[in-house]
Amino acid sequence: MGGFPIEIVLALIGIAVPIMAFVWEFVFVGRRRLGYRVQMDTPVTGEIESVFPGVLPQLRPDGGAAAPDLHDLSVVLMRIENNGATTIDIADYAGPEGERVGVHISFPHRRVIGMAVTELSDPGMGDCLRPGTGIGAREDAARRVGIIDLPKVPMNRGDHYKILAILQRSAGAGDYPPPTVQSRIRGGRAVESRSSTGISPRLLALIGFLVVVIAVQFAVDLGTADAPPAADCARGSLTVVGSSAFEPALRDAVAAYRKRCSGADFTLEFDGSERGLTRLDKEGRDNSALLAITDGPKGEGYPKLLPRALALSQFAMVTHPGVNVKDLSVQQVRDLYAGRIDNWRVLGGADLPVRVVQRALGSGTREAFRSRVLGGEQPPAPPATGCRAVLATNPPGPAFCEVPVTRDMLETVAELPGAIGYSEYADAAQASGVRTVTLGGRAPTREDVLAGRYPFWAVEYAYSYGEVPADSPAAAFLRFLTDGVGKDVLRAHGNTPCSELPDPTGCTPGR
């Protein structure tokens, strides 16, 4: 059973985090929020006295003549506001029963010598801020802290008032420590308000988090955009054997399948179509994780093997570059493989004896060549000596030899002067040291094959031993090759998927 899809997890996170942030901010901690903001905290220098003589001495708590001269003063303007999501009532201020004070403003290293309440957003709040309501100033001499006590003022959402305080230094030197506010709010808290300009760090963090979630989800979607549904993937092992001509296309298809379907393990053995069919016939009854690939239909003797047409493949004639022949007619190819032409100069080529290289019996490519080009005629059996012996002895007349797989065919034709052979076209086009030859002026293109103008082609089949289980790796890989991205891989190797032809079952070109 697969894990929970990562894209769903990311989507749930992207939805849940903003909801949780909203609930936390506006339901739990922000439903009631008493905010405060220091709008001004300015030292008062002696320059004021030079402009308005006598002003500073008049700033005394009682205005009496006996008050001492004042110096090292500062003016502080603070805004107290309800910036939460709901009203703050008197009962929302926590504290002992009967306690009238709800807010304490502390000024470290300063004492209060004067204060005033100003700028009430709701004039009705003034009744709660008059003398006798708990408002006042005091000093904690032990800690050298001036304190302004404010009463429990009921405030509607968005209400505010301001406190203007005249302070005198009581300790320390240099800049004053900033004032602090203490207040306990039931179902909320007292927090310092930030300026409304700019973006809050919390909002930036939330935006950044959501951007990361979206980016990760996009990367996941991009990486799996072409992935087939889970039904087209199966875990387990699968062995693919058979045609060496189809090997490059199958290897690339397996690589593409692995990228999209984790948990699949492949073993690839391309020793020829006949060997693949023989192994499947012997082992397939007890092994549903085994497929054989052939160039063309199976021969006699395999009644239990079921075919699935995969693609139409083009094949090409190849020669050693020194032959110097660019085009051959079908009849000339038949004459060459029958031994009726002994030197390439007969066909307008170089003065080189003909060396005929063919695939071994049981090869699907050999069978396609025999039926499509030689007209069903079986070429003469080669002598017991191999192609290396032909290269070493270099007989004066035509010579014949055979090789087991496509790779050996291309290597032998490249090494043996005067050699001619055949191969799957995509392999031949990429091989070094060989030259592809047109047949009757036609190249082995998909268009000419489908139009019936080029004769050398074959149907690539996948064989299984009976029907494979629908949830098996073999069934999943076959669906991938015939209906999924695997078709694009086969097409990239010059093959035409059978499902794209007018007769997908027969997989034959038009005539």
Q: Point out poorly predicted stretches.
A: 60-67
> What characteristic shape results from the CA principal axes?
rod-shaped
SSE class: alpha/beta
**Terminal Cα separation, in Å?**
49 Å
Fraction in beta strands? 25-35%
In which range does the helix fraction lie?
25-40%
Describe the structure.
The protein has 511 residues and is an alpha/beta fold. The protein has 14 helices and 20 strands. Strands 10, 11, 12, 13, 14, 15, 16, 17, 18, 19 and 20 form an eleven-stranded mixed sheet that branches. A five-stranded mixed sheet has the order 4-7-2-1-9. Strands 5-6-3-8 form a four-stranded antiparallel sheet, with no helix packed on it. A hairpin with a 4-residue loop joins strand 5 and strand 6. 33% of the residues are buried.
Summarize the entry for a quick read.
With 511 residues, the chain is of the alpha/beta class. It is built from 14 helices and 20 strands. The protein has helices at residues 6-28, 47-51, 55-58, 201-223, 247-260, 273-283, 330-338, 364-372, 387-393, 406-415, 425-430, 446-450, 473-483, 486-492; strands spanning 32-44, 73-82, 101-108, 110-118, 136-140, 145-151, 160-169, 180-182, 188-192, 236-242, 264-269, 290-295, 305-319, 327-328, 355-359, 399-403, 419-424, 435-439, 457-465, 496-497.
Strand and helix layout:
Blueprint: H1 6-28, E1 32-44, H2 47-51, H3 55-58, E2 73-82, E3 101-108, E4 110-118, E5 136-140, E6 145-151, E7 160-169, E8 180-182, E9 188-192, H4 201-223, E10 236-242, H5 247-260, E11 264-269, H6 273-283, E12 290-295, E13 305-319, E14 327-328, H7 330-338, E15 355-359, H8 364-372, H9 387-393, E16 399-403, H10 406-415, E17 419-424, H11 425-430, E18 435-439, H12 446-450, E19 457-465, H13 473-483, H14 486-492, E20 496-497
Parallel strand pairs: 1-9, 10-11, 10-12, 14-18, 15-16, 15-17
Antiparallel strand pairs: 1-2, 2-7, 3-6, 3-8, 4-7, 5-6, 12-19, 13-17, 13-18, 13-19, 13-20
Helix pairs in contact: 1-4, 5-14, 13-14
